[in-house]
Design brief:
With 405 residues, this protein is an alpha/beta fold. The protein folds into two domains: 285 residues, Vaccinia Virus protein VP39 (Rossmann fold, 3-Layer(aba) Sandwich), CATH 3.40.50.150; 74 residues. It contains eight helices and 14 strands. Strands 1, 2, 3, 4, 5, 6, 7 and 8 form an eight-stranded mixed sheet that branches. Helix 4 links the parallel strand 1 and strand 2.
Length: 405
């Protein structure tokens, strides 16, 4: 397997890769007083509790003890950095700059700031004036500040810790952000049961009021069906008055909210974890070969009504799979789910990479596209599609002699 191709941080000589190594060192230093078996047991307990709760309802106050805070930094912090860095490769933050203020709701150990530093170094055009972490657990903020200090991030950005339990009944603060980041916390405001959209509407209103005109919202969430439903509903609410930058390639209503569909809006990305991940004290072995997430990136400017082009954009939402007469991937577009397919079942690695989940493809909007019999998605031959730069997808790998498919 090509390790570099699947690393969320590039090759071992890249600056993000080195910064990630420094993060693992800092986490090890900050948890050095806890014996590894104790830390491992706490990681297992927190991991089990949080993954169970994500599917139905959220565990409350799971970061109340110093042990669970350390366990969070050992287990969830690195995986959330992976997720954020991957999604920012698809849709980079737009409002970074020397005078910009980023606010992070439900910041935990300042995961958002650390991830941004890992990916960009917070240098050059990627600087920030300030980072404000709003978080109901003061102690986890202290851990974040200590990590940021060890990594030298506090020399690059003014960090404000704001221990506070956000409630959307309160008046939004006067101080507005250029960027609002919400990572793995939006789900904590979703209804514990049922599908009431009221809390989502309250979140949307509060977020809108908190961000400057032209400001952006970046939301990173688990990929479970329930949480992704919340993200898709939020996206539809925001699309009335904001520009959705990603993952949607269109401003039409979210086609994946159709209750008849089995699929929902989330991405599963194959990765190779950083080698130092396996050396984290107390961590579970990083055996995963993929991370999953749902996300939303929006800018608070009125939706842009672009002229209909001959080619429309689609976001790839699946890995390639076999179909009756070949191989294909699903994309999501203004015309709903589309199936971009080849007659060959063998795809070359460059083709698989070019159509990896969360990438963008363009396809001819016009024309009589048939519907795939099984999924009812519009079926479009990949030979008619284009990469976002207008070039064609390479030919699929030639079939082996002993495998004529
Ligand atoms: C799963 S953690 C995510 C932490 C961090 N953003 C990350 O990506 O790793 C969710 C965080 O939201 C915080 N939180 C939950 N409800 C909150 C509220 N009403 N106000 C402020 N913080 C809240 C929790 O204490 C917790 O630290």
């Amino acid at each position: 397997m090509d390790q570099h191709r699947l690393s969320p941080f590039g090759s071992p000589t890249s600056a993000p890769y080195q910064r990630m190594a420094a993060l693992f060192d800092a986490i090890n230093t900050s948890t050095r007083d806890i014996p590894p078996p104790r830390l491992r047991a706490a990681v297992e307990q927190l991991s089990l509790g949080l993954s169970r709760s994500r599917s139905s309802m959220v565990l409350k106050d799971y970061l109340a003890s110093p042990l669970s805070q350390a366990a969070y930094c050992v287990h969830f912090l690195p995986w959330n950095v992976y997720r954020l860095c991957l999604a920012w490769q698809s849709s980079p933050m737009q409002n970074l700059g020397p005078e910009r203020a980023l606010h992070d709701w439900g910041a935990g150990p300042m995961t958002g700031l650390i991830a941004l530093w890992v990916q960009t170094g917070l240098e050059g055009s990627n600087t920030l004036a300030s980072y404000t972490a709003v978080e109901r657990q003061r102690d986890i903020l202290d851990m974040g500040e200590s990590l940021a200090g060890m990594l030298g991030i506090d020399k690059l950005v003014t960090i404000h810790s704001h221990p506070h339990a956000l409630s959307f009944d309160e008046e939004p603060s006067q101080e507005k952000a250029d960027i609002l980041l919400v990572s793995q916390s939006f789900n904590e405001w979703l209804p514990p049961r049922g599908r009431s959209t009221e809390p989502i509407r309250a979140f949307a209103k509060h977020a809108r009021a908190h961000v400057k005109t032209d400001g952006e919202l970046f939301l990173m969430e688990p990929a479970s069906r329930v949480v992704s439903w919340g993200v898709m509903e939020l996206r539809n609410m925001l699309a009335e008055s904001a520009t959705i930058l990603a993952p949607c390639t269109h401003a039409a209503s979210c086609p994946l909210l159709d209750p008849r569909l089995k699929s929902w809006c989330h991405f599963r990305r194959r990765i190779v974890p950083h080698p130092l991940h396996g050396k984290l004290r107390g961590a579970l072995p990083p055996e995963r070969e993929a991370v999953s997430y749902s996300y939303l990136h929006a800018r608070f400017t009125p939706p842009e009504h672009t002229k209909e082009q001959r080619f429309a954009l689609a976001r790839v939402i699946s890995e390639p799979f076999s179909i009756e007469d070949g191989r294909g991937v699903y994309g999501c577009s203004a015309q709903g789910r589309i199936l971009m397919a080849t007659r060959s079942r063998r795809w070359s690695q460059p083709l698989i990479d070019a159509l990896a989940p969360d990438s963008v493809a363009s396809y001819p909007r016009q024309g009589k596209h048939p519907r795939d019999k099984k999924s009812r998605a519009l079926k479009i031959w990949l030979s008619d599609c284009r990469k976002p730069d207008g070039s064609r997808y390479g030919a699929p790998a030639p079939a082996k002699k002993d495998n004529p498919s």
